[in-house]
């Protein structure tokens, strides 16, 4: 499972020209799911996401988590995070989970987020054509992969 986290001042998901979800200060989390992902991957990444100290403290140091600042999270499924770009110029997506598996794990990821940080999680719609606007704060963008915990 892969997460691309962006520290944002605000973010919004629009579907069919209408606002679907929006947050103020917090994290935009783009989630890519592989066929071998399990609840262990979900628990690992949810915990890391919510405890990651990338928000400024009183001295301006990145020392606070999204929970510390009482921020929000906007979670969006994005199979393109699983792209394989090793050959040619057209990405392959064979490393992404099939839609039925990915949707189930995405819903499980959302449920784990909501359980760990109640009332502070917004989400996109799995498989929808979404337009996302955001104001990246910093910019701060962090890549995490549950299969590579050495980072």
Describe this structure in words.
The chain is α/β, with parallel strands linked by helices and 151 residues long. It has a single domain (2-145), classed as 3-Layer(bba) Sandwich (D-tyrosyl-trna(Tyr) Deacylase, Chain: A). Helices cover 21% and strands 38% of the residues. It is built from 2 helices and 8 strands; from the N terminus they run E-E-E-H-E-E-E-H-E-E. The chain has helices at 39-51, 99-116, and strands at 2-15, 18-23, 26-32, 55-56, 62-64, 72-77, 121-123, 130-145. Strands 1, 2, 3, 6, 7 and 8 form a 6-stranded mixed β-sheet that branches. Strand 4 and strand 5 form a beta hairpin. The longest helix has 18 residues, at 99-116. It is globular.
Name of the level-1 CATH class? Alpha Beta
Determine the fraction of residues in helical runs and give it as a percent range: 10-25%
* CATH fold annotation: D-tyrosyl-trna(Tyr) Deacylase, Chain: A
Number of helices: 2
Quick overview:
About 20% of the residues lie in helices and about 40% in strands.
Identify the notable features of this structure and list them briefly.
alpha/beta; D-tyrosyl-trna(Tyr) Deacylase, Chain: A; two-stranded antiparallel ribbon; six-stranded mixed β-sheet; globular; 8 strands; 151 residues
Write the layout of secondary structure elements.
Blueprint: E1 2-15, E2 18-23, E3 26-32, H1 39-51, E4 55-56, E5 62-64, E6 72-77, H2 99-116, E7 121-123, E8 130-145
Parallel strand pairs: 3-6, 6-7
Antiparallel strand pairs: 1-2, 1-3, 1-8, 4-5
Helix pairs in contact: 1-2
């Amino acid at each position: 499972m892969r997460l691309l986290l962006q520290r944002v001042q605000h973010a919004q998901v629009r579907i069919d020209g209408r606002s679907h979800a929006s947050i103020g200060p917090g994290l935009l989390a783009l989630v890519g799911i592989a066929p071998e992902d399990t609840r262990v991957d979900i628990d690992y990444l949810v915990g890391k996401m919510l405890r990651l100290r990338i928000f400024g403290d009183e001295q301006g140091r990145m020392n606070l988590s999204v929970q510390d600042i009482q921020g929000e999270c906007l979670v969006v499924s994005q199979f393109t995070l699983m792209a394989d770009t090793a050959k040619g110029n057209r990405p392959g997506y064979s490393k992404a989970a099939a839609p039925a598996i990915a949707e189930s794990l995405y819903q499980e990821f959302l449920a784990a987020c909501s359980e760990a940080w109640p009332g502070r999680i917004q989400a996109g719609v799995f498989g929808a054509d979404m337009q996302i606007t955001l104001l990246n704060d910093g910019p701060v963008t962090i890549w995490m992969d549950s299969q590579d915990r050495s980072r």
